[in-house]
Amino acid sequence: MTVTATPEPLTQDALSSLMREGSRAEHTSAENTTFMTDLLEGRSSVEAYTVFLRQLAAVYEVLESVGRDLAGDPVAAAVVDDALMRAEAIDADLRVLAGDDWRDLPVGPAATAYAARIAETRDDAVLYLAHHYTRYLGDLSGGQAIGRILQRAYGLTDGGVSFYEFPAIAKPKIFKDAYRANLDALPFDDETKARVVAEVKVAFGLNEALFAEMSA
Ligand code: HEM
């Protein structure tokens, strides 16, 4: 992704606005899941968070591998950026939380289904955008507060929360503005924009299914 200060007019039908507005209800629903509220209000445990992060490892593995495969595609290139890559941070956290053999922890059906859906977008960069946006813009938004809350609530002072830290991104707000401008500069017709928005809803649904599995 190129970070430039191109001011794109944020009209009602700018892709980034459609994505945000189109997933507002899903976002509220995800925020209010039992899993998320328990986790953020200190009613969960380091063990439960570890299981969850192991699921996210499986999801990001595919998200980042498809991103690398699509990096030469002009659509995916609008958003794919090394500064976002989470695999190393997840590995570091899981080594702290679960030890070097963290890959032996099981990946459940929800993360398996989520990863499979992302893998399908390898041939469809337009849909890949939706998965990229849903995870990384979330990590750069609410995720920033979530990292600090987890650290405090579960005493994770010796590592384990680097997933929420983006050392290569000094100012998340500026980065997110550039990200949205890049999305909005893609030459998409209304039908293509609608496909992206529909897939953002799918991505939120897959996250919610993962949360449901985690609290079950
Ligand atoms: C308790 C959990 C959550 C909290 C407290 C939270 C909080 C927030 C906040 C405050 C923003 C707005 C930041 C801004 O205006 O720059 C935001 C944006 C966002 N969140 Fe979350 N969030 C949560 C869960 C999630 C989940 C589970 C996902 C998806 C996996 C997600 C995806 C997003 C996305 C994609 C955005 C960017 C919206 C946009 O500007 O286009 N969030 N979140």
TrEMBL record:
<feature type="binding site">
    <location>
        <position position="20"/>
    </location>
    <ligand>
        <name>heme b</name>
    </ligand>
</feature>
<feature type="binding site">
    <location>
        <position position="180"/>
    </location>
    <ligand>
        <name>heme b</name>
    </ligand>
</feature>
<dbReference type="InterPro" id="IPR002051">
    <property type="entry name" value="Haem_Oase"/>
</dbReference>
<keyword id="KW-0349">Heme</keyword>
<protein>
    <submittedName>
        <fullName>Biliverdin-producing heme oxygenase</fullName>
    </submittedName>
</protein>
<dbReference type="GO" id="GO:0042167">
    <property type="term" value="P:heme catabolic process"/>
</dbReference>
<dbReference type="InterPro" id="IPR016084">
    <property type="entry name" value="Haem_Oase-like_multi-hlx"/>
</dbReference>
<keyword id="KW-0479">Metal-binding</keyword>
<dbReference type="InterPro" id="IPR016053">
    <property type="entry name" value="Haem_Oase-like"/>
</dbReference>
<dbReference type="GO" id="GO:0006979">
    <property type="term" value="P:response to oxidative stress"/>
</dbReference>
<dbReference type="GO" id="GO:0020037">
    <property type="term" value="F:heme binding"/>
</dbReference>
<feature type="binding site">
    <location>
        <position position="133"/>
    </location>
    <ligand>
        <name>heme b</name>
    </ligand>
</feature>
<dbReference type="GO" id="GO:0006788">
    <property type="term" value="P:heme oxidation"/>
</dbReference>
<dbReference type="Pfam" id="PF01126">
    <property type="entry name" value="Heme_oxygenase"/>
</dbReference>
<dbReference type="GO" id="GO:0046872">
    <property type="term" value="F:metal ion binding"/>
</dbReference>
<feature type="binding site" description="axial binding residue">
    <location>
        <position position="27"/>
    </location>
    <ligand>
        <name>heme b</name>
    </ligand>
</feature>
<keyword id="KW-0408">Iron</keyword>
<dbReference type="GO" id="GO:0004392">
    <property type="term" value="F:heme oxygenase (decyclizing) activity"/>
</dbReference>
